[in-house]
Design a protein that fits this description.
Layout lengths: L9 H24 L6 H7 L4 H7 L3 H6 L3 H10 L7 H14 L3 H16 L1 H25 L17
Length: about 160
């Protein structure tokens, strides 16, 4: 991984290890038993955490598949693009930088979770929600970059009461 991701303190590293363990065991169980046949309780037991700890790291079972740090890496890369770069060019450069920050293991995990997303209807449905959220976050970053309010896109009329 590149320097896009900041150095973490002890607490953050422990959380990252727990998150990784939960995710690795979940993906292994999904592969062995199938997504639908795998319960949160089984995942938590395999990762040696409680179900409530599982839900502190992943709000839903679908999020185990969908949560990655691509958005974090993309936004970090976007934030340090040259200010004179047009927004679309800055997004392109940031996406390239973020993807290049993934090592072989990261890419294998991304492929595996993408395959699950395409194959499992519940995950695919939840992925749509995540896509909308990601677009909103990126739109907010672009708005801030160009000096506009994230709440009101360029060219939109202000809301008026009736």
């Amino acid at each position: 991984m590149t320097n896009v991701i900041p150095q973490l303190g002890l607490r953050e590293r422990k959380k990252a290890r727990t998150r990784t363990a939960i995710r690795q065991h979940a993906l292994r169980l999904f592969h062995e038993q199938g997504y639908q046949a795998t319960t949160v309780e089984q995942i938590a037991a395999a990762a040696e955490v409680s179900p409530s700890t599982f839900f502190r790291y992943f709000p839903t079972k679908e999020d185990v598949v969908l949560r990655d740090d691509l958005d974090v890496r993309l936004l970090a890369a976007f934030s340090h693009q040259p200010p004179d770069l047009a927004p679309v060019s800055a997004i392109r450069a940031a996406a390239k930088e973020a993807l290049e920050s993934f090592d072989t293991d990261d890419m294998a995990l991304l492929r595996e979770t993408t395959e699950l997303t395409l194959a499992v209807p519940e995950v695919r449905s939840r992925a749509t929600d995540e896509l909308v959220r990601a677009v909103e976050v990126i739109a907010e970053a672009i708005a801030l970059r160009v000096g506009r309010s994230p709440a009101r896109p360029a060219g939109s009329a202000p809301c008026r009461g009736r």
